[in-house]
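Data deposition worksheet. Section B asks for the primary sequence of the deposited chain exactly as it was used as input, without tags or linkers unless they were present during the calculation. Section C holds the resulting structure in token form. Section D is free text for depositor observations; keep each observation to a single sentence. Incomplete worksheets are returned to the depositor.
Section A, Depositor: J.P.
Section B:
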Amino acid sequence: MSYTALYRKWRSKTFDEVKGQEPITESFKNQIRTGRIGHAYLFCGTRGTGKTSVAKILARAVNCEHPVNGNPCNECASCKSILNESSMNVVEMDAASNNGVDDIRQIRDQVQYPPVDGRYKVYIIDEVHMLSQAAFNAFLKTLEEPPEYVIFVLATTEPNKIPITILSRCQRYDFRRISTETIAERLREISDSEHIDVSDEALSYIARTGDGSMRDSVSLLDQCAAFQFDRRIEYDDALDILGAVDTEVFSELVRSLAGKDIRKALKLISDMIEQGREISQFVGDFILYIRNMLLQATVDNITGLVDMSKENLKRLKEDSKLLSIDELMRYIRILSELSNQMRYSSQKRILVEITLMKLAYPETDVSMEGVNARIQDIRKNMSSFGSAASMMASSNEESDIPQEPRGPKTVHLPRGQYEDFMMLRNEWKNIIASIEDSSLRVALQNTHVVPNRTRTGMTIVSESRNSVNLLSGEELMDQFRKLIGKRYKKDIPFSVELSHESENSTIYVTDDDLKVIKTDVEMTDNI
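Section C:
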């Protein structure tokens, strides 16, 4: 005997069995009880929310010989013939593949003949928005004045594409996304009946992954049961089977981005892809994690709003302190844009990596949110340097050793030099990795770039005297300058110097930054 997929086996057969759409099912039960049945219905909603199931239940209910409280009995001859798809009274059509005028004309011809048995002929047209404009026009007259024994049920995921002339002639019902709790309860009912041993945590994750679609969630449960049939399905098993990522990875990614450790962030993405994880799902789950961080930062009690273990909630609370509310909002905006772009891109990994760089370095984001993030970043740096200076001053007082004051060093740059510097700083490791000449590549290892004293060029800083000697040679420096010119269409002068100063020991700002910060800054015009 062939295997029947769970979503087909457990398709709702009465209005009472449809989960998460109670206002709609109650309305139809009342219509069946009172006999006030319309001639055209429009079912709108995302996939897997019950549109086709309700349409088929309605087809049985209006023809049922012994309806029970508005539900079809599923026992009479009429119900059984519709259930086994042998009834001539129910016609299903997929408008995605039958969207022409001839297909509609065929329906117009069929509706002229009354049902042989039963009371109504029911036409279920799925994805009705796919009909051509000519087909809609041909359908309009029949929809407006159908025979009294005909009912049309039009289902669509995109009601905005349906002409207003069609919409105005239908009773519209909007099927909402089903809550995670409702889906999880249904999955527990199915798994217990099918003797599938699965933990509540795994079912909860499957329900979340279904994203409001009961059909998708049941299919995912079926997938997990097929993969792991010999032992209990735990949360980690569901992650592995569905190609998902554990919450700990999102936490590590947030921490690496907040700390501007883009190398670690990119390695996390690389490891995730090597493990076979689905990158689009990863982005969607990461957006959910940032959303949870935002709730943690803004809501006093997130009980019932965030579905996490105590350990993960503790980590979430710590992570939410790393980014401001504005920064979290910016993360959600940029990641949501990424999610939309990935639908049509064949280079999903590159899009993700570029987006992570934008998140880590707000100066690359030209939007107002990016500017605000950059200003907050400058404030954080100044605050941290101020704290370090205070601690150093306190230490000097205790030791009575006279030392030079070492407060925060803030350098004011012209706009052009600042933009060149930020571009090179962000791209520095990529530039080095792309160099084909081994001598130049080795000389640039463990270096960083800073604006130089000419107020127009850059200085390559190295802790290695050998590297400084190599780069001081006219040949290698000229080669590097041409490489930068070809790559970025800019002629930037470069010098080289030996230094043991930390790469982030100086804050660089422009006039615009100083105006917005509105605080006293010790200006240093000479670097």
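Section D:
The mean pLDDT is 82.
The longest strand covers residues 150-156.
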